[in-house]
Amino acid sequence: MSLKFKVIFSVSVLLMGISIVLSVMNYRTSVATTQTQLRETALPLSIDNIYGEIQKNIIEPNLVASMMANDTFVKAWIAEGEKEPQKIATYLHAIQERYGFLSTFLVSETSMHYYTPKGAIDTLKSTNPENQWYYRFKAKEVDSEINLDSNHLLDNSMIMFINNKIYDAKGSMMGATGVALKIAYLEEMLRYFHEKYHFNVLILDSRGKILLHNEMTPNYQTLLSPAQRSEIEAKIFTQTQKVFEFKSGSDSYLMHSKYIDGLDFYVVVEAKLDTFIQETKANFYKDIILSMGFAVLIIFIIFYTVNIYQRQLEYLVHHDTLTGLDNRRTFNEGFVNALQLFEKQSKPFGMIFIDIDDFKKINDTLGHVVGDSVLARVAQVLTQSVQKGDAVARWGGEEFAILCRNHPIDAIGASAKGIAEAIKLDAKLCEIAQGRVTVSVGVTVVRQGDTMDTMTSRVDEALYSAKNSGKDSVVYL
């Protein structure tokens, strides 16, 4: 046997020996700590992950539903007697397509017609059980609500509805509008937690009705007597204990629950203790088998390779490939964060839109390669000109956007002028374009009640004014 193979063999035996010893030690400690880990880590983290996923997926639909309820077109259409129903159907269809919702809807308090992108598909009646959601919502002293329900007019599966009341100028309710979205991601998450972690996840309403669960897995409602169920549900709904235990025959279960604010339902996670002890034994034997050969090295290589590709993919998702700047998606995420800080802490911010003047002429006369070089250089100048903490993004084509988060409000206009001047006087840019490159700039700052749509619309208007006033100028609205 050659020295090379002796070394390989020795290292392999050493790795296997160390792995076996560590596996035995880990097994002994794992059995003793399984319950502690479930109580203090696994169950609470699972609840938090599900809660976070739900919150993340309702931010944009919430904003859109609120925008619909305050849209002057919607209010005017209802006030004028709901003439030309196709107009509201087209409007609802546009919102549905733009944001990828399952459906959008509007209910008129005057006619009680239920409108979707297909038009008026139902007339609500207080005697119809399926229409009670509207009358309950109308009676509540809230402007919006989110709930889980099924709707025979849309789909038989569970759907999340985000409802917003529509008010006229006098504060009278004109109806309700909102969006409906499938929650397949939530069903998939429940399945994932069961298959990956052997947790049984339930979604309950405030009456104890199961809204979502894995139908193939027994849960406390099928395992326990009515009296035991009532005792468990009292703990769930009062939240007197974060984690508690119940027994069914010889089997012991741990349970953790959390109330979801704004949705009026509870997330419950169950864990059968025997399953995790058996899994610990299985993992013990699995660890011994996996220790053979160069498993550790192979895992390291795979992990290293995946990390490289993941970083590359994450970069492509959030950046523009030509300029290296943030893309519109990343800019929008930054805008949402800035708007939340403004609403909660009154921290103002501004937005600047920049459009390269006569860029088409550069492309037509000098070619697209030079045009791309101009875009890349403008991006570099912008990056060098903004203050630390500001976000620069390529908005699309020859347009760029800047989110000014660390500027005094009264200095944003001056900063925009400085940026425009820096681009005009950049020697390298002049060399690339064979002449001076100028830009038109629109500037605005956040106002109370602003949304992404209102603020971008205003800064767009400022940009167009700059274009129409002869270009190479800055307009502040």
The CATH architecture name of the largest domain reads 2-Layer Sandwich
* Rg, Cα atoms, Å: 30 Å
Overall number of domains: 3
Helix-residue proportion: 40-55%
The structural class is alpha+beta
Residue windows where pLDDT falls under 50 for at least 5 positions: none
CATH-assigned homologous superfamily of the largest domain? PAS domain
Provide a concise account of the structure shown.
With 477 residues, the protein is of the alpha+beta class. It has helices at residues 3-69, 72-79, 85-99, 132-139, 184-197, 220-223, 226-238, 273-290, 295-318, 328-345, 359-366, 368-385, 412-425, 427-433, 452-468; strands at residues 103-108, 113-116, 119-123, 144-151, 155-167, 173-182, 199-205, 210-212, 243-248, 251-260, 265-272, 350-356, 391-396, 399-404, 439-445, 474-476. The chain has 3 domains: 3-59 and 185-290, 2-Layer Sandwich (Beta-Lactamase), CATH 3.30.450.20; 70-182, PAS domain (Beta-Lactamase, 2-Layer Sandwich); 328-476, Alpha-Beta Plaits.
